[in-house]
């Protein structure tokens, strides 16, 4: 069922504390941790604790939780003292999604080209 932890999901395991991560923020509904392969000086992932497979599913299945994730991206940027930053949701393998648990990338601390490569 939507929202239930999945045994084979890396990010559900991070939420459960079964895989270590550098957690920078946590709320009742969300966790933010540093990306293991950072693409910028600040590269933090904000995820809902509940499992939803991508951003669109999260918005459809749990809109309040989607709002919680977005609010936390700003909180992360504030903590990191980022005036400018980019929030990215990769959706689908063609767009680079590799983990099927919704997550926002928060990237900052360097110049960011637009449009991205
Ligand atoms: P996606 O490619 O699905 O948009 O983003 C998945 C992100 O998760 C990638 O940027 C990748 O570096 C990161 N990642 C993959 N495995 C781990 C892990 O075990 N720990 C952490 N902290 N990040 C991970
Ligand atoms: Zn999951």
TrEMBL record:
<dbReference type="Pfam" id="PF01230">
    <property type="entry name" value="HIT"/>
</dbReference>
<dbReference type="InterPro" id="IPR011146">
    <property type="entry name" value="HIT-like"/>
</dbReference>
<dbReference type="InterPro" id="IPR036265">
    <property type="entry name" value="HIT-like_sf"/>
</dbReference>
<protein>
    <submittedName>
        <fullName>Histidine triad nucleotide-binding protein</fullName>
    </submittedName>
</protein>
<dbReference type="InterPro" id="IPR001310">
    <property type="entry name" value="Histidine_triad_HIT"/>
</dbReference>
<feature type="short sequence motif" description="Histidine triad motif">
    <location>
        <begin position="101"/>
        <end position="105"/>
    </location>
</feature>
<feature type="domain" description="HIT">
    <location>
        <begin position="10"/>
        <end position="117"/>
    </location>
</feature>
